[in-house]
Amino acid sequence: MKFLRLALPVVLSYLGLMLMGFVDLLCVGRVSPLAVGAVGTGNTFFSCGMVFGIGLLSGLEYRIGFAHGARDPKGAWTAFVQGLWISLGLGAVLTLGLLLVSDWFGSLGVNSELVPLASVYLKITALSLIPSFVFTAARQYLQGRGSAVAAMWILIIANLLNLLGNYVFVLGNWRSPQWGAVGSAWVTVVSRIFMMIAMLACALYKEEQRRKVGWILDRNMCRELIRLGLPSGMQMVLEVGVFALATILASRLEPLSIAAHHIVLNLASMTFMIPLGIGSATAVLVGQSMGAKDPRAAARTGWHGLKIGIGFMAFSCAVMLAAPQVLLGVYSQNEAILAVARDILFLAALFQLADGAQVVGTGALRGAGDTRFALIANLCGHWVVGLPMGLWLGFGIGMGLRGIWMGLALGLVVVAIALLLRWRLVARRIVALESGPI
Fold first, then answer.
1. Burial profile 94-104: b = 16 or more Cβ within 10 angstroms, e = fewer
2. CA-CA distances (angstroms) from residue 381 to 30, 77, 143, 408?
3. How many degrees, rounded to 5, is the angle at CA 43 between CA 37 and CA 45?
4. Other beta carbons within 10 Å of 255
5. Nearest CA to 167 among 190, 187, 182?
6. Cα–Cα distance for residue pair 398/43, rounded to 1 Å
7. Sign (positive/negative) of CA torsion 436, 357, 47, 49?
């Protein structure tokens, strides 16, 4: 019951984050296929920067959860403050990096029709990177202490603002010009700034440690958080990066294939948010159990999270296979796009279980303090096995988009198997040691 009390609002929070991208894609899909491709391409590059930062900040889940389990509120607050400092520094560097990358789209082989609009879209959304990181740090502070409801409600309100903004500025209602992809970018920035301010307010409300400890930069703890989070950040970049590279490769194909790729990728990303939230809650509760010196509870929590995550993805797989037309029809009514997307959605359905297993397994390992193995598993599974296979199938023997997605599916299966085996080993080891994190 404790698991569900934390996991449900965390899952809804992650769904809320993804729902913004869904609404953006849905609205620009009513404008033109070119706008869909531009938003999808811009978001692909933005996501690489954002997930690296979120991954780097994931060290907070372990550190704050452990401190909460050990009844150390000062330690939890100090970790949160260092998370804010890391958010500001890293956010500034990555924002500059995205602004530079936006000028290189042409040289990366992106379809020349997409380059101007995708470049502008990325430059605007890059401004929301720091707000996204600060929001994440504040959310993880409250989540690590067992409270995720505030983030859920903030994201509900932010999604309503995003929906209203898209209705007015993207689609051109209420006498507003139809700004399309550019309007979508500005609405996203404003929504994320709201999320940052509201989440900070919740984290700071009646916080006694703010007055006792303050906002001092602790370089030693910053280094510890970076040491914990860097493998997670790199692991998430490797995972998202392989899909980003697949998007770049798909952008060399005809516009219909590009649009179909972005639609299926967005739908698969929506279902992925559920086990991602379950994995995050698993990391927190495993960390709390480790901090409370109860490794048996930590092991049970990890397996419990895996069962729930894989169970949901089995349901997701069944729905995708049973009702592809209904799911894809939400995004577009263009029959040519839907015909390509249906073919790819079948492959996305087949890797749902593997996707759920690998993301919850990563969370369970992170809660136990093991962040390096997921990095190695993603490097080998996606970049040594999945990507080369996708390149060979997609371009070597001419299967196109279908071949690219077959390679992505194979990579996910390899990663999932490796992480399940690793968690089995770690769970046995922490119970046998009856001591702190490995």
1. bbebbeebbee
2. 37, 37, 30, 9
3. 110
4. 18
5. 187
6. 27
7. positive
Token pair 């759920």 in the structure block, residue: 356
Residue pair 283/306 in contact (Cβ under 8 Å)? The answer is: no
Confidence at residue 94, expressed as pLDDT on a 0 to 100 scale? 93
Take residue 116 and report the two structure tokens written for it.
Answer: 């101007």
Distance (Å, whole) CA 354 – CA 317: 11
Q: Which is nearest to 49 in space by CA: 13, 92, 113?
A: 92
Q: How far apart are CA 378 and CA 385, in angstroms?
A: 10
Q: Which of 102, 438, 24 is nearest to 266 (CA)?
A: 24
Decide if 377 is inside a domain.
yes
Total domain count, the chain: 1
User: What value, to the nearest 5°, has the Cα angle with vertex 139 and ends 136 and 142?
Assistant: 150
Q: Kindly report the pTM of this predicted structure.
A: 0.74
DSSP 8-state class, residue 254: -
Nearest by Cα to 33 from 45, 25, 22: 25
Token pair 């879209």 is at which residue? 121
Q: What is the DSSP string of 37-66?
A: HHHHHHHHHHHHHHHHHHHHHTHHHHHHHH
- Structural domain includes residue 341: yes
Return all residues near 160 (Cβ < 8 A) that are at least 6 apart: none
pLDDT at site 25:
73
Tokens of residue 95, six digits = 């924002």
Please spell the DSSP secondary structure of 117-146, one letter per residue: HHHHHHHHHGGGHHHHHHHHHHHHHHHHTT
- pLDDT value for 417: 95
Residue 317 covered by a domain:
yes
- Residue 11 and residue 17: Cα distance in Å, rounded? 10
Give me Rg for the CA atoms of the chain. 21
**pLDDT value for 240:** 77
Domain of 332 in residue numbering reads as 2-433
Angle of helix 295-322 versus helix 352-367 axis, rounded to 10: 160
Q: What is the mean pLDDT of each run of 10 residues along the chain (438 residues)?
A: 72 75 75 74 80 82 75 82 91 91 71 76 90 90 77 88 88 80 89 93 73 75 84 80 75 71 82 86 85 85 92 94 88 80 88 92 88 89 92 85 88 94 91 57
Structure tokens at 342: 């249906």
Query: Over 21-36, what HEC string results?
Result: HHHHHHHHCCCCHHHH
In a domain, 438, yes or no: no
